[in-house]
Amino acid sequence: MKTIIFLHSTTGNTRVVTRFAAAQLKQLGHDCSIVDITHHPEPPNLEDVDLIGLACPSMYWRPTVVMEQFIDRLPVTTGGPRPAFLLATASGDPGSHFAIAAEHLAPKGWVTLRAYFVPMVNNWPSHRALSEWIPFAGPLAEKITEARPYLRSSLGWLWPDVGEPLLRHRDGLMAFMKDVARRAEARDFSAAKAPADLWRGSRWMAAVGRRMTPKQMRSATNIQVDASRCTRCGTCVRVCPVGCMTRTREDEVPQVGAGCTGCWACFNHCADGALSGMGAPHGAGRYAGPSPQSRILFRPK
Ligand SMILES: Cc1cc2nc3c(=O)[nH]c(=O)nc-3n(C[C@H](O)[C@H](O)[C@H](O)COP(=O)(O)O)c2cc1C
């Protein structure tokens, strides 16, 4: 089977998980490739593709704007419905992520068979910076999870860095990939769930995700560049998935233009603390990417 997984990852969590998922499909005999939609925003020809996967972080309890826009650019399939699966990483709850993605896929002829979410460390700087300000949160979460390691992923809200994925999340992903492959090979759409049933988490978060608008996401981020700290390295310009960090010359301080989707990629990749955002001044709460433990856990075999 020819399979493509379309990936959007801002700081690497979803990339680590997606590589593992792709390796599983290869072991199951699929000709599977990953296409990073940050660098390849236009969908390729999908005529001979049997199965697609869409992998991205949950942001504001929905799929990333970049992924949503990518789905909307997909051509309508010919020759009947074809199978798709969804993969998310999130720190706690994907909210309406899967429902919204499946609803956008359906008119394009792709039937979402199943969806899976892997909990990973929270890369949302506003949340991370807030936790740094609560003096007892970190030590308390560390103490609890030392005694009860299985609570790691659920205590990520208290101290983001304890929210590491566990062996059972990797095993769950392996079982998920097997099931998706089996159903896709059999073109078995009978057990495909309705979008709203793909994930049942907090109703409140799902409702918030439904209501988030691009304007709200932009104002919940509000990236500012501090010229005195900026080394003009251009990293923020390179990592912005929508090209809204711009400069006309190499030695210029980048400007934040229109169209920011609030993903914080620029902020998280700025090693100089030159960017500030809502609740996160000068790089406070910056997430530097997946830990060695999670990379080892999801190392493709
Ligand atoms: C702006 C923003 C919004 C986020 N919203 C959610 C959310 O709604 N639910 C959740 O569980 N995690 C949320 N997160 C955490 C990310 O989904 C999580 O850290 C993810 O693994 C990051 O993946 P990436 O490194 O591939 O971009 C959010 C992170 C950011 C930066």
Please describe the topology of this protein:
Elements (H helix, E strand, L loop, with lengths): L1 E6 L5 H15 L3 E6 L14 E9 L2 E2 L1 H9 L8 E9 L6 H9 L4 E10 L5 H9 L3 H11 L19 H19 L17 H9 L2 H6 L4 E2 L9 H5 L5 E2 L8 E2 L8 H5 L5 E2 L15 H6 L4
Parallel strand pairs: 1-2, 1-3, 3-5, 5-6
Antiparallel strand pairs: 3-4, 7-10, 8-9
The protein binds flavin mononucleotide.
What does this structure look like?
43% of the residues are buried. By secondary structure, the protein is an alpha/beta fold. The strands form 3 sheets. Strands 1, 2, 3, 4, 5 and 6 form a 6-stranded mixed beta sheet that branches. Strands 7-10 form a two-stranded antiparallel ribbon. The chain is 34% helix and 17% strand. The protein folds into 3 domains: 168 residues, Rossmann fold (3-Layer(aba) Sandwich), CATH 3.40.50; 42 residues, no CATH class; 70 residues, Alpha-Beta Plaits (2-Layer Sandwich), CATH 3.30.70.20.
